[in-house]
Design a protein that fits this description.
The structure is a homodimer of 349-residue chains. The first copy, chain A, has three domains: 7-49, 434 Repressor (Amino-terminal Domain), CATH 1.10.260; 64-169 and 309-336, Response regulator (Rossmann fold); 172-306, Response regulator (Rossmann fold, 3-Layer(aba) Sandwich), CATH 3.40.50. Chain A is of the alpha/beta class and 349 residues long. Chain A is 43% helix and 18% strand. Chain A binds chain B through residues 1-2, 51-54, 56-57, 60-62, 96-99, 171, 174, 177-178, 181-182, 185-186, 218, 282, 302, 335-345, 348-349, and chain B through 1-2, 51-54, 56-57, 60-62, 96-99, 171, 174, 177-178, 181-182, 185-186, 218, 282, 302, 335-345, 348-349. The first copy, chain A, binds a DNA duplex (16 and 16 nucleotides) through helix 2 and helix 4.
DNA sequence: CTGAAAGCGCTTACAG
DNA sequence: CTGAAAGCGCTTACAG
């Protein structure tokens, strides 16, 4: 920028060399209090702002910013966790000339989460991007990172943290309320609603619980008299899905008019309904899983809510880069939009 | 980047100076065919890619990229056209260190569009961002820009162009189909549907016509027997709105169950309905106009479709910058997502 | 505690 | 037709 102040101008104004200005800017030792004060005053007065482009051009070769990404291991053929990764890779591509290096680590359970977290901290990364599936272990990682002064941004899930940190994720309660709005629009006041939680061996995911809460909140606030039943399917990730007696019992009494599935496995619902000859049911689920999209096209699912996982990954890297280079954390605390998907706008997302 | 090839390495491999490499890279004259060929081969073999950051650091001071933005004049207090501007300003902010200069020009009619277009071309901008409201005049601008080798990206509206160019806008036909899907979900097969075109003195906007077409297409394809009436309101922009006899006649026969307004002025509908004691009508409209949002909150409008105008402006500038600096036009042809808004997710957008 | 020099990768006059 | 030098704004050894 021609009309903006640079370190050269600062140096001239302070009657020092640019090296000394640089020391002050980076809080490096070896400057007398007097010169430091003088330079700091001038920096403030002139509103000097570092040229990040020039700074990174210089550093790109010798001192890349190293970011560790610790996410759940990709399990099945379609995996949700490939999506944030895609966004991360896009961000890395865009920042490649600025000197950035992203390494991936994977966890499957609390134990591997801690193990990988420790490995990351030992390798002295500049920042960490991770997913707080496990509350205790996430707090453990956070406190260690705090000690080493390494910033963390948490994606996907919100948990209670002992220290403030960064979050990029959807407000799951809000997403549940949106689901309520959508499903009520289709079903109206008179029908019975099912909330279906599909639970893996790890138990009910925090997001799912919050979505259920939001859904119920929507009806409590707007349509008090609607009937809602909470149903649970226990379905370990890697075992084939079976309609068990518990599911059979869903349809003993009244039949549902609307079903809200609190996670990505809403594609299981149509077969359950068919098996019990239940028709005319509206379904709202989550995530652009390929099977969900198929159901959307078949009209077996009416709405999907998208968490914009690519966007989450992209924003995490771009935001962290901005934070590391400009101390600007404004992109690191974000409620991702609750994106509503129907058959027609599905391809454009 | 340390492991990537730079001009220095190219120069060494070709036994020339970096100046000569630079001449070849920029297709500047003054290089013998032999050296040019040799260097070009090496560039291809090594997969050399210019470091845009270094390049722009160099040029930011002396040769900023100048982009002209030619958009409709902001008319009322709330103006749609402030939104793309917001996105443009965000992009400019992000690119400030890379040397960019954006100037705004405004038009109100075909005449001022041409006038401003000529003014822009005379000032030798590097690129133009504009809105093709007027087909003939837009093509006129495009052909002149083609002559001067200045790229144009068109926002908001798609028109038939004589030459290929760049477009960033929503697929309005698709948006109409989405509206059909949403409204049918609320109303079902039995009700009467109104499509309401609210027309200014400039006539029906191309987007509105395409949205109407898409809406009808949705029903023609999926629910053939639904009854749809097309209604028109003539309402010059700066005159107060009045319920005239034409509107009165809407309700002579059957009353509508669903209303689709093809532009941002869906907030006019609730008063019309109240005046005729018509209730239980679902309404879908466009754009996050403050009055629309109010209606969404009051439950007088059920869905709004957003065209992401900020995003359009942002993408236009970022995409054009990428095109000018890296000859990569991949972000300059874009179908903006059809974003579905309900009361609950309205604030997050 | 401070300064002068070299360099990040590219671009531009200028000299020959 | 080609090269050598200066510079974009910042950062880093190195010298004193």
């Amino acid at each position: 920028m021609d009309n903006l102040i640079g370190i050269k101008q600062i140096a001239k104004l302070a009657n020092v060399s640019i090296g000394t200005v640089d020391r002050v800017l980076h809080n490096r030792p070896g400057v007398s209090k007097a010169t430091r004060d003088k330079i700091e005053t001038i920096i403030k007065e002139t509103g000097y702002k570092k040229n990040t482009v020039a700074s990174r051009l210089n550093l790109a070769g010798r001192k890349k910013l190293k970011i560790a990404v610790l996410i759940p291991e990709v399990s099945s053929n379609w995996s949700y966790w490939n999506l944030p990764k895609k966004g991360i890779e896009k961000a890395v591509e865009e920042l490649s000339e600025m000197g950035i290096l992203v390494s991936y680590y994977y966890f499957t359970d609390p134990f591997s989460f801690i193990k990988m977290g420790d490995a990351i901290l030992n390798k002295k990364y500049d920042a960490v991007v991770t997913v707080p599936f496990f509350m205790v272990e996430s707090n453990n990682l956070l406190s260690k990172a705090k000690r080493d002064n390494i910033p963390i941004v948490f994606l996907d899930t919100e948990v209670k943290l002992d220290y403030p940190s960064f979050f990029i994720r959807q407000d799951s309660n809000l997403a549940g309320r949106v689901a309520g709005r959508l499903l009520h629009g289709l079903v109206g006041n008179d029908g019975l609603y099912f909330v279906v939680n599909i639970v893996t061996e790890r138990g009910l995911h925090a997001n799912n619980q919050q979505r259920e809460n939001g859904f119920r909140e929507f009806f409590r606030t707007n349509f008090k008299d609607s009937k809602i039943s909470i149903m649970t399917i226990n379905h370990p990730v890697d075992r084939p899905f079976e309609i068990n007696s518990e599911i059979e019992s869903w349809f003993k009494d009244e039949r549902p008019k609307g079903i809200f599935v609190t996670n990505a496995r809403s594609y299981l619902i149509p077969d359950i309904l068919k098996a019990h000859s239940v028709s005319n049911v509206s379904v709202v689920g989550f995530d652009l899983h390929e099977d969900n999209i198929k159901c959307l096209r078949n009209k077996e699912i009416d709405f999907l809510i998208n968490q914009k996982p690519e966007f989450q990954g992209y924003t995490a890297i771009k935001g962290m880069f901005k934070f590391l280079t400009e101390q600007d954390s404004s992109d690191l605390n974000m409620d991702v939009p609750v994106e509503i998907i129907v058959q027609e706008n599905c391809n454009l997302i």
